[in-house]
Amino acid sequence: MALAWASPINLRNLSLAPLTLLQPLCINSSIHSGFPCSAKKGELPSISPKRTSTVKGKTDRFYYGWVIVGVSFFTLFFSLGIRCSFGVFYVAILQEYGWGRGETAGAFSLAMVIHALFAMVTGGLIDRFGPRTLFPLGATFLAMGLAAASRITAIWHLYFFFGVVMAMGINTLAFSPHMSRIPKWFIKRRGLASGLVVAGIGVGTMVMAPLIQFMIDSVSWRPAFLVLAGIVLVVVVPMTGLFQRRSPEDVGQFPDGIVPDSGRTLHPQPEGSPKDTRFSHLSEQWTLRAALCTRGFWWMALINFSAGFSINMLVVHQAAHVVDAGYSPSLAAFLVGLVGLLNSIGAILSGLISDRVGREIAYTLGGNSALVGVLLFLLIRDTAFPWMIYAFVILFGLGHGSLPSIYAATTADLFPGNSLGRIMGTFSIAWGLGGALGPFLGGYFYDQLGSYSLPFLLVMVSISLGVLGIWRAAPRHRGSFI
Fold first, then answer.
1. How many domains does the chain have?
2. Residue closest to 29 by CA, chosen among 40, 20, 42, 38
3. pTM exceeds 0.70
4. Which one of 96, 191, 289, 405 is most buried, counting C-beta atoms within 10 A?
5. Which domain, by its residues, includes 361?
6. pLDDT per position as a tens digit, 312-364
7. Tens of pLDDT along 264-293?
8. In 3D, which of 173, 258, 197, 127 has the Cα closest to residue 408?
9. Across-strand partners of 219?
10. Secondary structure (3-state) at 374
11. CB within 8 A of 479, min separation 6: which ones?
12. Residue in 126, 113, 122, 199 with CA at minimum distance from that of residue 430
């Protein structure tokens, strides 16, 4: 008996062991792993066989975090792919009702305002209830709004169904709620995982916009809304409800699928330079109130505002500028989709790069690429130099597409903890305000000056402010940004 107690115990072989034998193991596991035992008196403790039987320091053969990445990719694919296709419905509705372009486009601006107003609410809800509860609820709201939009007969219907109901659903499924979950699953590959998730937005735009246009051409825009509602209800609702999880602990795993040695912290320092301090504060539990008291928080808010301003300015006015230069509307629509696709590629590449060279350098590379692209776009006046428009698509698509995954990963580096959803929700307010202001100023200055020169210069200034912000709020400045 003494030899039996002295030898290592494999929990895989103790599924029917008595409670008295497992209780000491449960207590020991709680002390060393940092996770409390869930067993109550008279119950079998819920220790994951995979967690306790895996050799410490080794990687799980199958890591559920990649399932979370895949589900998040397709959730953004559908939800934000639909939102970014507003322009397709916009043209069809204008043709049927003849409403003014400004007042019709106001529904998109209202959606951005709703995005800003509900961002903190969503951030708090995702922290409290988790994605498995919140995401299906948001998808249901989105499906309801899409179905109701098929019955639009007055402009206030468009404002309410798209600008409010659909916006609330999309806000629940959008960028910030997902980006607040990914850091709980990944540390070493946080940039790559964030980039893969964000890529769903660009791929969704590239696929959904032509698909919606095809449905409008085939059966008109009202049935198209109904088809989209059915897709969301049948695909997104069950997918998020069945496969989403709050954190690796829910499936008996550790971040990155790596079981730490008993003498190491739960979140190990990534391989690389010993001076790399991006992950040295992961044991901290930041609150929103504490984050608000730091300069780094406000620099990150500026980054989010600038990103929302610049991308939404071009989402609304890019195609119009291409047509004004003498190109066909079909080419303009194709280029919008191509920018979305390149955004996805940029997000993935930047995630890999930022994990290796740092968030600041990767963000600067992407920002400079976007700056050069916008400058070329500003200089386009006619069809004499077609290479310029394709250079814009490549440089801006790859460059600006790289930014969201980087500033999301940077936020998680700076403010780890269970309040990350609330913190990122607050940043979404800044993004939404920039997203509402950018398109409005683009249209206003075009009406006043007859060109997009000043609006696109403002986009360049906005991108430059974002680059400045990432260096001021960078993880390497954590010791001095408070």
1. 1
2. 38
3. no
4. 405
5. 65-247+287-477
6. 888 777 877 888 888 887 787 788 788 888 888 888 787 778 878 888 888 88
7. 444 444 333 334 444 444 456 788 788 888
8. 197
9. none
10. helix
11. none
12. 113
